[in-house]
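Hey, can you fold this one?
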Amino acid sequence: MKMIFTFFRLLRTGFVLARHDALIPAEYAKSVPWFVRWIGWISRIFARRDLAKNPGERLALALEKLGPAYIKFGQILSTRSDMLDPEFTKGLSRLKDNVPAFPMQEAEARIAKEFGKPWQEIFKTLSEPVAAASVAQVHKAELLSGELVAVKILRPNIHALMAKDIDVLRMVAALAQTFVKALERLDPKLFIETVARSVMLELDLRLEAAAASEVGEAAVETGLFRVPELYWQFSSKNIMVMEWIDGIALSSDAVLDDPNIDRKALAIKIIQCFLTGAFDYGVFHADMHEGNLIVDADGQLVLLDFGILGRLSHEEQRFHAEILYGFLERDYQRIAEVHFEAGYVPAHHTVEDFASALRAVGEPIFGKTSDQVSMSKVLLQLFEITDIFDMKMQPQLILLQKTMMQAEGVARRLDPEFDMWEASRPIVEASLRRELGPEGRISDFMADLRRAQKTLKAMPAAAENVAALAKAWQAGEVDLSKSAQAASVTKPRAMLKGFAWAAMGAVLMWGSLWAFGNL
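Sure. Predicted structure:
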């Protein structure tokens, strides 16, 4: 039953996009294959004519209507004016910090329910919403003790709404992986599960407060950025209270015109604070769109909204630092070796062939500034290379890749001549000196000793298990042949496969009838 309702919501998603002429916008119809163009022509029969002329704004309006998970998707797209039509991304920019707020009465009711008393007993003043995002909105308030604070309140019913959105995305991923064989390598289902987990964690503000505190420690130590101070005594699952910091949001056009803001230096800080967190601390702000970044009166970068936190293991930190350093030094052989050592490229390929393919991507863009490089072409080349070399997507690294794309997009907006390579160099070099120097080698040696100790402890039990299995096999109690193993799973799999096809057929039939009846 849940699957049927999810399918109906999928049909609704397609209808809403068509209604806003956002499924295959007329402005871009000539850029797609004929059969996709035909679908777009059919969808525009149902499109409204009184919506925005900008296709990006029409998509933003559709995503706002569809729900918070879709808004998150739009926020990522809005940072990539280098890959997409700048007018299109400009239209999407309303999603960064201009999502419609929920009523003040509901906000007051949520505070009273959360703390068991009216807001007047906690705050001297509580403003109307000053910013609203996909999952929460922010109010400016003054504590009884006099401090100015930002009060973040989750949207009503956001948990249920987000879960429904994620179910639709799961169905889209499953259908795509089933019917578009080329996508199997990218594992869309695993990708959606990774995104779903990070998004659902965002819906507990206690976890966001902990994330802000953790990133705040790195902010103090590096001095590259600021994080607002937390008021733990006023924070809960649905409400979080932080220091209020005045500043200009990087989503505002004012940041591009203010003569007091050094935009080139600010662009470098954005990339460096991201890379420092990822490579030096193994933790980073994983939602760095312009709406979550402000510059204060002193020109300091301030990070807000820590609902999505990215983490890298020690091995992943080293892996990505070595890859970036390899590109900086144009050492494609080493980049290829790192990929093989991590097991990301199947062994039937050669390091030399992979290094040559990477050279074809790296050389044309080396030393170029952002206004001289088409990132869409670069990403297309990388995608083609991963296909040629049978590389699968690594879901644990999705947040890192997504955030790097966001951060670079923000930096490019501030400084069209931004040089990603030179901005990254000091952070990457310092990370590798630490990882590959004496300190890193000693750390590796101690880790190897701990693993060896665990292995030695486990050996007696493992030997006993192997001996018991051998004894049972000799006595005829266990059949380890391949035919026996295959027989044990073939029948259940056949039954499940038949049931799955029958269920999908029923869903498609009911869904089509429902859609036809609502056209």
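Strands lie at 123-132, 136-143, 148-154, 239-243, 247-249, 283-285, 293-296, 301-303, 309-311. Let me know if you want another pass with a different chain boundary.
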